Amino acid sequence: MTSENSTRPRDLEGRAAIVTGASRGIGKAVAAELLARGADVLITARKPEPLEAAASELSDLGHGGKVVAFAGNAADAEARSGAVDRAVAEFGSLDILVNNTGINPVFGSLMEADLDAVRKIFDVNVVAALGYVQQAHRAWMGEHGGAVVNLASVAGIRSTGVIAAYGASKAALIRLTEELAWQLGPKIRVNAVAPGIVKTQFAAALVAAGEDKASAGYPMKRLGTPEDVAGLVGFLVSDAAAWITGETVRVDGGLLATGSM
């Protein structure tokens, strides 16, 4: 992660954001992108120590935006309320919400899946995202407007067989995005991004056989980086995307264009 980007616009100055699941990976890169564009950012995740370390690193980038860390489980209503209230209190507004938190503890056949684990996947990946939108709407966006981006997945668009429960939750998140865009417009725009495999700790199990093998089916012949996703999120929450809502934008190196997963 670097602070050097002379071409990045400062188009989010005066705006405040929450990014969930932001102690590492895509969430941390999104926070860096928003800061570089001039926003103040509250980052949240479950574990306090990695979150504080991420906040310190983001502050050290020297982009000028304020960084606040708030530890809490996205699936916990009190934690969601606390994060939103803290953001409004610290920054005076809440203009951007990025629902990045996601879990995937279940692999393989759905016929053998632990239903409690499946419920947890949907609770964190879908219900918690809706809960954050509800809270942000009550606290600020309902009156003042804003932009929401949900982190979906290509697994929510096409079946994988391997991460089926996760994929079903991301398909639900994509539909949720469309419903919210319809219900919350014109003040609030709601979009989603659907990454392919991105080189993060979260995706480690999917590249266990080697990065070259995992990326062989991608037209771009490489896996994604957190920054690939972050740049798209930064665009979608900016005024450059002012007439885009209800969309799920793929950032997958062309994978779905091949007709396979």
UniProtKB/TrEMBL annotation:
Protein's UniProt name: NAD(P)-dependent oxidoreductase
This protein's UniProt keywords: Oxidoreductase
Family per similarity comment: Belongs to the short-chain dehydrogenases/reductases (SDR) family.
PANTHER family membership: DEHYDROGENASE/REDUCTASE (SDR FAMILY) MEMBER 4 (PTHR43943), DEHYDROGENASE_REDUCTASE 4 (PTHR43943:SF2)
Keyword match Membrane: no
Residues annotated as transmembrane: none
One Gene Ontology molecular-function label: oxidoreductase activity
Taxonomic path: Bacteria, Bacillati, Actinomycetota, Actinomycetes, Mycobacteriales
Database matches in SUPFAM superfamilies: NAD(P)-binding Rossmann-fold domains
